[in-house]
Each structure stands twice: as C-alpha cells, then as structure tokens.
Design goal:
By secondary structure, the chain is an alpha/beta fold. It has one domain (about 5-400). The chain has helices spanning about 10-20, 25-45, 60-65, 85-95, 100-115, 130-140, 160-180, 190-215, 220-235, 240-255, 260-265, 280-285, 310-320, 325-340, 355-370, 390-400; strands at about 50-55, 70-75, 120-125, 145-150, 265-275, 290-295, 345-350, 375-380. Strand 3, helix 6 (about 130-140) and strand 4 (about 145-150) form a beta-alpha-beta unit. The relative contact order is 0.14. The model has no long low-confidence stretch (mean pLDDT about 90).
Length: about 400
C-alpha cells in the first residue's frame, strides 16, 4: 500500500498497525484504542452503560468528569469521521464563512447529524476559539445542553496576589462545572484525588516511553507517538486499557534491539501544533528519514498531590505551558529542541485558524534567528489525504536537513 493511495485517517491507522508496526502488539493496541474511541463511547452511551459528555481533548474538565463518573468524549476526534458533507452542513445550513477553521466546521457538521440522538451534553471553552463560541450558541439552539467554561490564561510574570486571584477564579469555574455535570457543587474529593494520582502515574510512564524513543526512534514512528500524547489526556475513554498499553509499550522498548546504522541516519524533529487528521504528513516525515521526537505537548508538570485536589487541579493548569501567552510555549519548544538535539521544527495548524497562524509565524521567526529551520504547514480537519504539494514540501524539508 502506497501512502498516496490512502484516503482516510482510519486507513492510515490500519496501515501503521499492519505494515509499519506489525512487530509491536502494544502499538497496535494503542492505535485500536484511538480508532474505536468515539464509536465505542457513543455505543456504550446509547446502551445505557455509561454517562458521557463531549469535551476538549485536553483540559482540566477531563479528570473532573472522570471523578464524577462521566466519560469525556473528545469532539476533536470526530474529525476522522468527517468529510465534505460535514463541512457543507456548517457552511450552508449554519452559514459559516468558507474561510472558517475546518476543525470547527467539521465538529458542527457532526453534531448536526447527531441532533436528537446520542450524547447531548457539551463542555465548551469560551475565549480559546472565537468560531467555537459561535458553535456553542448554535448547538444550544439545536437542543444540546452546553456549558461554556472560561479559559484562564496566565500572562508572563504574573505571580503573587494576581496569581492567587486567577487560582480562585479557576477554582470557582471547577465548582460551577461540577454542578453542571452532576447537579451539585459538591465534588467527591477522594475520587478527584484518585484521578490526579492516576494522571501523575501515567505522565511518568509517557515520559519514560518518550525517553526510550530517543534511543530507538524508529521502533515507534510518528503517528502512534502523537496519539500516545493524545491518549494521556482522555485515555480514549478507557483508562485501564490505556495504562496497560503504556506498560506493555515500555516493556517492548526496553528490550527492542537498536540498529546503530539507522540511529546514525535519523533526523530528530520537534512537532509543534495540533494533532492533524492528515496522517499522511506523519508517514511522509518518517519515509524521508525524519522522526518526531520532541513535542509541544510534552508532559513536563505533575499535579501537586500534597494540595487539596481541587486546588491541585487549578494550580496545575496555571503552572503549565498551556496557561499563558505563546511565549510560554516558546520556552517549551526550546527545551524540546535541546533535549532531542533536533535539527528542525514542524509547525502545523488548521486552515482558517488565525490565532494559530499568528503564533506559528512568531515561533518560526524566533527560532529562525536562533538557527533552527522550520516548515509551517496548514491542513484540513476533514477526512482526506494531504495534498501532493504538502507531501512534497515535507519531503524536501526533511531531506534538506539531512
């Protein structure tokens, strides 16, 4: 199977499992968890086996939902189920401008198809994305129960009293969200503590896997590495199964033989951006000799288990790279470049996301001045292969670094 012939994200998952990683049962299980995530959650919900809510793929609401006995289903994962019909629904029925972010249009189109059936509750995040703010309001009119949380940002240099104000504001958000989720502001702190402990435990295991990949970069290629990090936030709706995969993957990587000749040829790269649905991009990087070894979303920070769990949740948000201006992310990228001895950056975002495009240009300029070459890519969210132009650019970029 040639990558130019693959037409859907699902086919890429099958290709990665059966043709790229046939030797790794753990990677196959990881890709299976990812592929079945939305379908299994919706089916279990329809059969009354679980309570579920649509949520972000990342965010403090995820451990809170689990602690409340509710499965968070990441609406961004609906991208692989989307096609031009979903985009057309958003543009024609809801009058989204053509230039609007394809991720938002795909999500709206998918929710439109599910009106009156399936998971009816959505946790949105206002301020983070203006088109999604419109989406929340539209979905309310379509009968969905929507709760939009306020995103809390920490500007560079904010500490002391101002930081404490932000912590208290976020804590209030947590209690308001708990009330929306369960009907009560009372949070089961022991269950939330258990979720925080689980998250810390899995963060350590994911770090271990990423460290082992640096020593053996071609054992686990780029696509499953992206979904390793995606799963760290949602566990694909199956926490126990996800943790079991991590344990199995660590065992494989610790004993897998390393080819010194391949190790000498590898071109370490840092991936900065969203988890694109155009999976052919990852395969093109791999085939050109590149390896995504550093990530903007690397889990640097653990939760502070000495704090009351609600406060620990709030302080973790305000203490990581997602809690402030892009300059924070810039520092994370620098750490990743040094750690993996990267030769270049891959900056990726979705067409129509003006915020993301501004941030990527800022990072490109900053790191160019420091001598790190980069490639800035924009892709679509709906099903479909990447354009030949994008694949050609990626191959040329990686080959240039060689």
């Amino acid at each position: 199977m040639d990558i130019e012939d693959i037409q859907s994200p699902r086919d890429y998952l099958i290709y990665s499992k059966t043709q790229v990683h046939p030797y790794s049962p753990a990677i196959g299980k990881l890709l299976d968890l990812s592929a079945a995530y939305v379908q299994d959650a919706e089916q279990a919900y329809a059969q009354g086996q679980i309570n579920a809510v649509w949520s972000r793929a990342t965010g403090w609401e995820i451990p809170l939902a689990y602690a409340s006995g509710i499965i968070p289903v990441a609406y961004s994962e609906m991208g692989r189920l989307s096609d031009m019909e979903s985009v057309t629904i958003a543009e024609d029925y809801y009058q989204f401008p053509q230039e609007t972010c394809s991720m938002v249009k795909c999500t709206v189109g998918q929710w439109h198809k599910r009106r009156g059936a399936g998971i009816k509750r959505i946790i949105g995040a206002s301020v983070a994305c203006e088109p999604y703010n419109l989406a929340w309001e539209l979905m309310k009119k379509e009968g969905y129960d929507v709760h939009a949380i306020d995103v809390v940002y920490r500007a560079p240099g904010v500490k002391g009293e101002r930081l404490e104000q932000l912590v208290q504001f976020l804590i209030e958000q947590i209690y308001e969200t708990a009330e929306w989720l369960t009907g009560s502001r009372e949070i089961n702190e022991e269950k939330l503590r258990t979720e925080i402990q689980r998250k810390n435990r899995l963060i350590v295991k994911v770090r271990k896997i990423l460290e082992l990949r640096i020593k053996n970069p071609y054992y686990m290629r780029s696509l499953p590495s992206i979904y390793l990090l995606t799963g760290l936030n949602t566990y694909f709706g199956k926490p126990a199964a996800y943790e079991a995969v991590l344990d199995e993957l660590i065992a494989e990587l610790e004993t897998a033989p390393v080819s010194k000749s391949e190790l000498a040829k590898v071109i370490p790269l840092v991936w900065v951006g969203s988890a694109g649905q155009e999976f052919g991009i990852y395969e093109a990087i791999d085939q050109a000799g590149g390896a995504l070894l550093g990530f903007r979303g690397y889990p640097f920070n653990n939760y502070d288990e000495t704090l009351p769990p609600v406060e620990a949740l709030a302080r973790h948000v305000l203490g990581n790279q997602e809690a402030g201006a892009s300059i924070y992310v810039q520092k994370v990228i620098e750490q990743e470049l040094k750690k993996v001895k990267a030769r270049g950056l891959v900056l990726y975002g979705y067409l129509g996301c003006s915020y993301g495009s501004v941030a990527r240009e800022m990072w490109r300029d900053y790191f160019h001045k420091k001598g790190f070459p980069s490639i800035n890519l924009e892709g679509t969210f709906q099903v479909g292969p990447p354009t030949g132009q994008i694949l050609t650019r990626i191959r040329a970029f990686v080959e240039m670094l060689a």
